[in-house]
Amino acid sequence: MATTQEKAHHAWRAAERIKRLSDRLVGVGPIGLGLDGILAWVPVAGTVYSVGAGAMLVVAGFRGGASVMTLGKMLTYLAVDSASSTVPVVGWTVDTLFPGHLMAAKALQKDIEARHGPSALPESWDRKRKARAGRRGVKI
Fold first, then answer.
1. Which stretches of the chain are assigned E, i.e. beta strand?
2. Per the CB 3.0–4.6 Å rule, which of 18, 36, 40, 117 could disulfide with 95?
3. Residue 31: how many CA atoms within 13 Å on its side-chain side?
4. DSSP per residue, 98-130
5. Are 101 and 19 spatial neighbours (Cβ–Cβ below 8 Å)?
6. Could you give the C-alpha distances from 116 to 55, 66, 113, in angstroms and in order?
7. Residues 21, 13: Cα–Cα separation, whole Å
């Protein structure tokens, strides 16, 4: 059975995956767009994705041993994000611009790092990014 620290760092990595997929597939500076923002414009699909990804984050929070305060923050961010996707056009715009999954994932990651120390991404996650940057002549 995994130790508490291993479970927590596994939850940290799960939050990172969801954060990137939901709100940071494409990023320009502080602004990002992911599946949550794109699917917000598809009736029902946006809400289903938002609620599903949010549930995965909350489960990761429980498994990682997040505090009640952190789970409360996460649920608040996710509720606003998911509720906005139910309102046509205006809500979809809000859902596209409001990075609820990103904010919830960062809250979880911060809680885990405070309790169990910093977590690192596997090297394979950055390999593709470094390869693309190298082809463009950008040094990392």
1. 26-28, 31-33
2. 40
3. 3
4. --HHHHHHHHHHHHHHHHH------HHHHHHHH
5. yes
6. 23, 11, 5
7. 12
